[in-house]
Amino acid sequence: MNALYTHGLVVIISTKRRFGGFAKAVGLGVFSTPHGMGYAKVVIVVDETVDPYNLPQVMWALSTKFNPQFDLVVVPGMSVLSLDPGSDPEGMTYKMVIDATTPKAPETHGHYSQELRDPAGTQRWMKQIGKMVASAAKQGGSR
User: Fold this and answer.
1) Which of 27, 34, 81, 114 could form a disulfide bond with 97, CB atoms 3.0-4.6 angstroms apart?
2) What global pTM score does this model have?
3) Which of 83, 15, 63, 69 is nearest to 43 (CA)?
4) What is the pLDDT of residues 99-110, one digit of tens each?
5) 46 in Cβ contact with 52 (< 8 Å)
């Protein structure tokens, strides 16, 4: 499991699903940790194939795997950092877990056959772009 705590009160977790409902349990578990109790207001859980440090991949998971009818857990009356401007009263808030993982039995909603993969040739283009950036930096530094 990887947890990313750099987006304010949002935590992004990448984990391997073990059974239906596992991602929701992981997300709720974050709220019971010392760090999560104060600093986690929104927990987004994604599949192990999604890099939690890559926001385009996380947004792809949210847009394709998340269904609010099944994959949203809202918990009222939770403690939060008193500096949270959305808390009311100060230090109290609603928190939520967003399950953006592929459903696993016994969950049966949706049709998910396409995994996240880079398009063919992406690695070749990334190397080429890297060379161009390095060349431009070298030329800019020699002026």
Assistant:
1) 27
2) 0.73
3) 15
4) 999 887 667 666
5) yes
